[in-house]
Specification:
By secondary structure, the protein is of the alpha/beta class. It is built from 10 helices and 10 strands. The protein has a 5-stranded parallel sheet. Strand 6 and strand 7 (87-88) form a beta hairpin. Bound molecules: cytidine-5'-diphosphate (CDP).
Length: 229
């Protein structure tokens, strides 16, 4: 069967990564979490002392971009971990310190161009599911299947709190809610490839859907598009 490209975009903590990962596994495609790449660059900037009180040293970060190598490793339990210059940083990039700075980092045009090139290189042979903010608009504008995921900020904050608690991180609902709203704002208003729905994207509002229901919806759309009935 001919392979396609699947682009899944949406607001922060909308459940896109879980959907994208499960779809890729189900249909045997490569899964790439583009947000993890922006998070890894942010962690590098924090460790290199290029951030201070919520501000990013833009020219300093642009200067070190060639030193940042991001890759993914498949773990024995089937999960995918993000590697920053070969170090497993999966847990660290999900914490609030990185979440608080990732949107300003992702708004830097040079950072975006650098990562978009790498993301496009993963997709040359199709057979890929990538999730993020600009996948259907900028990274893969010709993707055969585009999905835009929406959910209310309250539902998203609740989901993110549960997810972080499951990973053993101590979090505060108000802090998570404020971070989600602030990232939505920065991501939607930045100049370089802002978060927006591609005109030809299917919209999924998953406020009232269980994980199983949304997977069913996604797989049905995938089968329609690939005629894999
Ligand atoms: O998991 P969550 O929805 O919180 O976010 P993420 O997918 O890990 O992305 C973290 C941040 O990276 C976003 O808030 C955006 O600022 C940025 N990002 C982006 O600008 N473009 C992408 N394609 C993916 C993420």
């Amino acid at each position: 069967m001919k392979k396609i490209t699947v682009a899944i975009d949406g607001y922060s903590s909308s459940g896109k990564s879980t959907m994208a990962r499960r779809l890729a596994k189900e249909v045997g495609y490569l899964y790439v979490d583009s947000g993890a790449m922006y998070r890894a660059v942010t962690l590098y900037a924090i460790r290199a002392g290029l951030t201070r009180e919520g501000h990013v040293d833009t020219s300093g970060l642009i200067g070190v971009l060639p030193e940042i190598k991001i890759s993914f490793a498949l773990m024995p339990d089937g999960s995918q971990h993000t590697l920053l210059n070969s170090e497993d940083v999966e847990s660290e990039i999900r914490g609030m310190e990185v979440s608080a700075l990732v949107s300003p980092v992702a708004a830097i045009p040079e950072v975006r161009r650098h990562l978009v090139k790498v993301q496009q290189s993963y997709g040359v042979d199709k057979g890929i599911v990538m999730d993020g903010r600009d996948i259907g608009t900028t990274v893969f504008p010709d993707a055969e299947m585009k999905v835009f995921v929406e959910a209310s900020p309250e539902v998203r904050a609740n989901r993110r709190v549960l997810e972080l608690e499951e990973k053993g991180q101590k979090v505060n609902y108000d802090e998570v809610y404020a971070n989600i709203c602030e990232r939505d704002r920065i991501d939607s208003t930045r100049e370089e490839s802002p978060l927006r729905k591609a005109e030809d994207a299917l919209v999924l509002d998953n406020d009232n859907l269980s994980r199983e229901q949304q997977m069913e919806w996604l797989l049905e759309r995938f089968r329609e598009i690939t005629h894999a009935k």
